[in-house]
Amino acid sequence: MKTQHNCTRSFINALALRKWLTEKLLPEIMKKPTMSTRDILSEVRKTWRLEISLDKGYAVRRMAFDKIHGTYKEQYARIIDYAAKIARRNPGATSLVTHAGGRFERMYVSFPACTNNFRYCRPLICVDRAHLKGHNTNQILTAVGRDANGQFFPIAIAMVEKECQKIWLWFLGLVLEDLGGRQASISAIMKKQHDPADYVDDCYKPSTFLKHYSGEVHGTNSPNQWPVTGLAPLLPPPL
Predict the structure, then answer these.
(1) What is the pLDDT of residue 239?
(2) What does the pLDDT average to over 22-48?
(3) Distance, CA of 201 to CA of 204 (rounded, Å)
(4) Which pLDDT tens digit goes with each residue over 161-200?
(5) Which residues make Cβ contacts (< 8 Å) with residue 102, sequence separation at least 6?
(6) CA dist 69 to 62, 78, 126, 145, Å?
(7) Which residues contact 200 (CB under 8 A, 6 or more apart)?
(8) Is this structure's pTM higher than 0.85?
(9) Per-residue pLDDT at 34
(10) Which residue, 71, 51, 119, 93, is CA-closest to 178?
(11) What strands lie across the sheet with 94-100, from one edge to the other?
């Protein structure tokens, strides 16, 4: 009979189901909404002395967030209600959702607490975009100002299907309306690969400028080369 064993203990348990782990970890995730996948792996290791894969940890986190916030589809099903709630809670806010064929397209939000107080900021608007992570492949467009302390001051934000000239014009048009309408002049700092003329109103484009001054103004030569009209010469104004 063998009295000594040299076999190792395995902490990997494939029977630790995602649903069971989600139910056990849900209260902890609700208390710590920023809990990452690796935090979940660490919590499982500490509480049950189990090793689960990174994929299973991610799935548990995703299932927990679906229970807390609703699934991906459930959240988009309420996005129009969400926009309406923003408008009701913030009179004067712009909360706009567009859709095509019953499918979400883009959303724009600005709050009067931001747009009304922009007049106290420096007369400069910075715009940028960023990709969303996760299931959503849309992009975020933002417009911010700079306050008297040199800090960023939020003006408006939008979630759009992609970045292109048409959508930038849509976004910037809404921003200008929320700030009180179009101004007489505009200055822009652009990336090298962008042409500012593609993003401004037609009245600012060089082509419009050239149309206004398309007629030629010809100079005159010296007086001795002027033609004689034959009319009586005029007297100067009285002194």
Answers:
(1) 46
(2) 93
(3) 6
(4) 998 989 999 999 999 999 987 554 556 666 666 776 777 7
(5) none
(6) 10, 11, 32, 32
(7) 186, 188
(8) no
(9) 92
(10) 93
(11) 94-100, 103-110, 152-160, 139-146, 126-131
Domain locations in the chain?
A: 18-69, 79-200
Report the chain's terminal Cα–Cα distance, integer Å: 138
User: CB under 8 Å to 144, separation ≥6 — which residues?
Assistant: 125, 126, 127, 152, 153, 154, 155
70 sits in the region (left: phi over 0; alpha: psi -120 to 50; else beta) called: left
CA distances from residue 215 to 126, 209, 212, 218, 221 in whole angstroms, order as listed? 38, 12, 8, 10, 19
Express each pLDDT in 78-123 by its tens digit: 999 999 999 999 999 999 999 988 889 999 999 999 999 988 888 8
- Res 111: pLDDT: 94
pLDDT digits (tens, 9 = 90+) for 6-19: 665 555 555 568 99
